Amino acid sequence: RRVNEVAGMLEITDILHRMPGTISGGQQQRASLARALVREADLYLLDEPMGQLEPQLRTLLRGRIKHYIKEHGLTAILVTHDQTEANALADRIAVMEGGVLQQFASPQEIKFKPANLFTGTFVGEPPMNTFPAKALADSDGGLSFDLGHGQKLSYKSDDFKAETRDLVASLGNVVVGIRPYAVQRTAQGVAARVNVNQWLGDQSHIGATLGDRPLVLVEHERSAVKVGERIGVHFPANDLHVFDANSGQAITHGQEIA
């Protein structure tokens, strides 16, 4: 019964009678995964189990495998370089770099509260925009980030909790991060110059330069901005990530700020 259930789930029922050498690489990978899942075990280790599959089939099977694991109360460790796969299947994600654990948390926390600069820039597509900055407490209770090249991000006193403002300002050298979809275009923002504008069918990816740093914006409407055009951009406080420039550790994130 379990063999038939797993074979149907992985779309290999029609090849159960065939020898490994007579089936494709993708079918062999699904057969290997099926052999693992039909066994009774306390822990399943799945190393890139869908790496050879076509994108459409991979998307279909991700949902089925997660449902199967949940339904049968299984515990599995999945090794993957595919962020979409990790987010779709995992209850918790371990982000590794050079054999060192960087963060172990839910997919939501990994994305919205990265523990450090590596995790913040590694997870997410397009990657997080980052800007080295000098944090300054303003006399009116606000907080500014001097990006150099005459560019400054300024926030009002009610944009930051007092303790957060004081902590950030005390560090001085920080890295400000913001995800591409959170960047807003506004005439009152800091100036950036457009380098490329790509329409991907359902969203525009705008590549620009802010100071001497690259900036990527994602907009869900087709953007008419032209290459060479100067645009104003704003980084909402609720979407801001601030990291210690020396250690790379996160200081504060979005919803913790305001």
UniProtKB/TrEMBL annotation:
Signal peptide range in chain numbering: none
Keyword ATP-binding: yes
Cited InterPro entries: ABC_transporter-like_ATP-bd, ABC_transpr_MalK/UgpC-like, Mo/tungstate-bd_C_term_dom, NA-bd_OB-fold, P-loop_NTPase, Transp-assoc_OB_typ2
Molecular-function annotations in GO: ATP binding; ATP hydrolysis activity; transmembrane transporter activity
Domain ABC transporter: 2-50
This protein's GO CC annotations: ATP-binding cassette (ABC) transporter complex, substrate-binding subunit-containing
Domain Transport-associated OB type intervals: 176-243
Keyword ATP-binding: yes
Keywords of this entry: ATP-binding, Cell membrane, Membrane, Nucleotide-binding, Translocase
PANTHER family with a match to the protein in the record: MALTODEXTRIN IMPORT ATP-BINDING PROTEIN MSMX, TREHALOSE IMPORT ATP-BINDING PROTEIN SUGC
Family membership: Belongs to the ABC transporter superfamily.
Protein name: ABC transporter ATP-binding protein
Organism of origin: Brucella anthropi (Ochrobactrum anthropi)
